Structure of Cupin domain-containing protein:
Amino acid sequence: MTAIIRVTPNAGDISHGPIASAKVLQGKPNSTTAHQFTNSQNNFHCGVWSSDAGKWTLNYTEDEFCYIIDGEAIITDQNGVGEKLTKGDAFVVPAGFSGTWETINSVQKFYAIYEKAE
C-alpha cells in the first residue's frame, strides 16, 4: 500500500513564471506552482498555486477544485457574473468554463485538477 501524500505550500516540483502574455488583460502577473501529485493515468493533478496581482482570461478543458489558502481573487464568467473568493473559500471550476481570473494583490490556493482521459 502506498502512503498518503501530504499537499503543502513550498513542496514538490516548484515552477515560477509569468502568466502567458496572450491571456493577460491587466498587469504583469507571475505565478508559482508547487506541483505535488499526478496519478498513473496522467489525468489527475494537485498541488499549491499562487500568483501576484493581475487579470487574465480562462478557458477550462479540465475540472478543478480549489481552496483559497490566502489572499483574494475574482473569477468572472463570460456573461460578466463575478465571484469574489477569499481565504477559506472552496469552489469548483467545471470544464467548459470561460471567463477571467483576477488576483487582487496576491493569492494562494490548493488545487486538484481532473482531466477526462483521452
Remarks:
- The chain has no helices and eight strands.
- The chain has one domain: 18-114.
- The beta strands are 13-18, 24-26, 30-38, 44-59, 63-77, 82-86, 90-93, 98-114.
- The domain at 18-114 is CATH 2.60.120.10 (Jelly Rolls).
